[in-house]
Design brief:
alpha+beta; globular
Length: 94
């Protein structure tokens, strides 16, 4: 794997970890969490789970066909598709 692809893969993994961390740190009551876990959550245009934080949204799809699962991430800003290369401008915060 080339150094630039390795950097991109690491950045994507860190970004995904941050998004999952933000989503799991919600102050929502446990009944709402149970409802979301049951599959009653917002879906994006690709039928994946849509996570929102202000104007930013990230749709996550998971395909489990074949030997390894395949994740796809679709970023949106103000409900419009965002070029994944533009994510380098965002800063993750806890």
């Amino acid at each position: 794997m080339s150094p630039s692809n390795l950097v991109r893969a690491a950045a994507a993994a860190l970004f995904l970890a941050g998004v999952v961390g933000v989503a799991s740190c919600s102050d929502a009551p446990s009944a709402e969490k149970a409802e979301a876990e049951a599959g009653d959550y917002e879906r994006g245009p690709h039928n994946g789970r849509l996570l929102r934080d202000g104007d930013f949204a990230l749709e996550i799809t998971l395909y489990e066909e074949g030997p390894e699962p395949l994740f796809r991430l679709y970023p949106y800003l103000k409900d419009k598709p965002l070029d994944p290369r533009a994510l380098a401008q965002f800063e993750m915060r806890h």
